[in-house]
Amino acid sequence: MRADRVFAYGATAGLIADALLGDPRRGHPVAGFGRAAARVESLLWRDDRGRGALHTLVCAGGAVGAAALTARAVRGRPALAVALTAATAWSVVGGTSLGREARAIGGALAAGDLEVARERLPHLCGRDPHSLDGPGIARAVVESVAENTSDAVVGALVWGAIGGVPGLVGFRAVNTLDAMVGHKSPRYRRYGWASARLDDLAGWPGARLTAALAVAAGGRPRAAVRAWRADAGRHPSPNAGPVEASFAGALGVRLGGTLAYAGRVEHRPVLNGESGRDVRGADIERAVRLSRRVSTLALGVCVAGRMLAGRVVAGRGVAGTEAGAVVNGAARNAVRKRGRA
């Protein structure tokens, strides 16, 4: 079975498993990777970019290498290859858990239970919940749903289409390292620099695909494009900017503004400020539904792109074989003619 079909069947099965089961409840591979990365950090940490780069290389490179060896072990055995891809995709995507957490907070806000909403918010993002009122919590949830649609689903699918199982694992490893050490805190400003920059690079294609699909699936394409073009570049993150801006336009809300993170305050530009309104609790459900549509479309786009690339490669292989046969035939004929002479 060709590699493109292995990815198509495996990725589809993995996303179905995520939709039905959510994240693995025990022995989650990403959690295991996080523990291993924390152990490496305890051995390597210095307030130095070079040590941080070594940490990134050891952790992300080790994960990709292990995935490549595992994928190579099942090469030529289609059923095992598809099963490995499915299990890996299920482990690295997190769309269902993202939606569950967002809806739980939305339900608490709808019930008027602000304290429960504040207690659950850290499960979804790093904001300081005690500084937020109901609309502030709703805005934080919508922003997190938008950004994590790219980080938890679409980006992984893009790299899976490019690199198969090693691509899936590599993207999740890089994204996890960025979440662990890619901060601007005194401890990680230098040490986490390499992880943060690598995450920016790895997340670039998935973020643009997420933004484009939010335009297509959001029901307000002109507003989403306008917000993306006008506001994405003003966001401090090169990847969160396009995603959050397109979601803001698609949902007709304003995102961004003043944010509080564990004792520090950031004043970010407002996204879709001209035509959007303040976020309400009901917008959380709208954001989750948009996220699911974007994720489904992303699976289709990535599978189609991988299949197309596979056909192009296969066509070149056939053309090369035919050209080689023609050359070999011509050479044999020339030898025969010289023999007759």
From TrEMBL:
Keyword Transport belongs to the record: no
Single GO biological process annotation from the record: cobalamin biosynthetic process
Top-rank taxon: Bacteria
Pfam families per UniProt: CobD_Cbib
Membrane topology: Multi-pass membrane protein
One MF annotation (Gene Ontology) recorded for this entry: threonine-phosphate decarboxylase activity
Pathway the protein takes part in: Cofactor biosynthesis; adenosylcobalamin biosynthesis
Entries under InterPro entries matching the protein: Cobalamin_biosynth_CobD/CbiB (IPR004485)
GO cellular component, one term: plasma membrane
Cell compartments where the protein resides: Cell membrane
The entry's keywords: Cell membrane, Cobalamin biosynthesis, Membrane, Transmembrane, Transmembrane helix
Family: Belongs to the CobD/CbiB family.
Function description: Converts cobyric acid to cobinamide by the addition of aminopropanol on the F carboxylic group.
Alphabetical list of HAMAP family matching this protein: CobD_CbiB
Protein name: Cobalamin biosynthesis protein CobD
Organism, as annotated: Streptomyces griseus subsp. griseus (strain JCM 4626 / CBS 651.72 / NBRC 13350 / KCC S-0626 / ISP 5235)
